[in-house]
Write a structure and sequence with these properties.
Oligomer: single chain
Distance between the termini: 22 Å
Mean pLDDT: 88
Number of domains: 2
CATH topology of the largest domain: Alpha-Beta Plaits
Strand content: 15-25%
Number of strands: 4
Low-confidence stretches: none
Number of helices: 5
Largest sheet: 4 strands, antiparallel
CATH superfamily of the largest domain: Lrp/AsnC effector binding domain/regulation of amino acid metabolism (RAM) domain
CATH class of the largest domain: Alpha Beta
Radius of gyration: 20 Å
Shape: elongated
């Protein structure tokens, strides 16, 4: 098994390190080294290699649920005329409220995540998404709560 971008198959330690970083990317390298039973230098070199190989694309911050209260998140499924897919993607990329976009298989072609401060704002965003040239149908689901998030 190889992870896309890696030059060689990931080792057990690579996978263990990735799991630890997914749990807490701010864990000091010395703490990671202790947990993995290797030297700090070995962990730092492994992290650098995983970054260089494109396995680790970056580090991020997860916003706490309490701070995010008052925010409205919607998942928007889009059916798009294939001739206009690239134009739709460019248009959605320019909308600040669209925070992620995925191509998918099934009845929809794209799924977008939209985040705004109110239901009125999400309504405007959904209208704007649906009015893009090439979008033939949308279906939206408002996220009510998060039960868990492994990102």
């Amino acid at each position: 098994m190889t992870v896309r971008g890696m030059r060689k198959a990931p080792t057990e330690r690579d996978m263990a390190l990735l799991r630890l970083l997914q749990e807490n990317a701010r864990e000091p390298v010395s703490g990671l080294a202790r947990t993995l039973g290797v030297s700090r230098t070995a962990v730092q070199e492994r992290i650098n290699r995983l970054m260089r190989d494109g396995v680790i694309e970056g580090f991020t911050v997860r916003i706490g649920a309490e701070w995010g209260q008052g925010r409205v998140t919607a998942m928007v499924s889009l059916v798009v005329d294939p001739k206009h897919t690239a134009d739709v993607i460019r248009a959605l990329e320019k909308m600040p409220a669209i925070t992620a976009l995925w191509t998918v298989s099934g009845r929809s072609d794209l799924v977008a995540m939209a985040r705004t401060g109110s239901t009125a704002e999400i309504d405007q965003v959904l209208d704007e998404v649906g009015s893009q040239r090439g979008v033939t149908r949308t279906e939206s689901s408002i996220i009510l709560s998060t039960k868990f998030d492994r990102r």
